[in-house]
Task: structure prediction
Amino acid sequence: MKKTIYLTVLGMLATAATFTSCLKDSCDDAPYVICPINQPNALVTVKPNEDNTAFRMQLTDDVALWPVNMRKSPFGAKEVRAFVNLRQPTEKELGEGGIIADIPNVYVNWIDSIVTKPAVENLLGDEENRQKYGTDPIEIVDDWMTVAEDGYLTLRVRTRISGHKKHIVNLVHRSDVNTPYYFTLYHNAQGDTYGEVGDAVVAFKLPDMGPTNGEREQMLTLEWQSYTGTKTVRFRFRANNTNTTNEELPSMSNQCFE
Result:
């Protein structure tokens, strides 16, 4: 039986500008900025060790964070993408948590998982995929939550939703398309197409897509059916971070998608 997976619905339409202003474009000086405590100031991959006796938070392909006030991941031994609100630890908190050299030490005010799921099977082509995975339009929001990093494609999406039915989104690696690293996002609204406009965030674990010819970075192409027709966008990503698998994980937040 297919595991149920939910997509976090976020009330971000009125606060998108605030979220954007809280995000640093560069981690040269610090891995995060100060934000109101009810807003995330980082998007991370939670990476526990096998028995979940410790975990780190991967901020980017190159920057990891050490949470001084948490030992076990609240999501168990599974790897998951998450929003987090961080701050710099006090000297007392550093002493209690233990300093880890060479990576930023942070204090976690709160952390909340994002739905994290793998890409699904590519069928014979787009028509077959559409029949199985859905043909409903969806928009992808161009902001800091939409990013390809650390082996994941994380997307902030926007569509009409009443909350009475769960929407289903799936990512397919289109191996039938003669373009390297080509993906299509499919959306099945299950008939729920007349509600209010709402946003959600979902993270897809990118599959192992074969050799990279020695190149460290690659370009990923994403296609989706928008309300104004088919659209595509390209992401730069580290192909060498895409060779692990991940199980579907439920979100901790209110749930109207899957």
User: Anything to note?
Assistant: Helices lie at 16-21, 91-97, 126-133. The longest strand covers residues 152-161. Residues 126-133 form the longest helix (8 residues). Confidence is low (pLDDT under 50) at residues 1-34, 242-255.
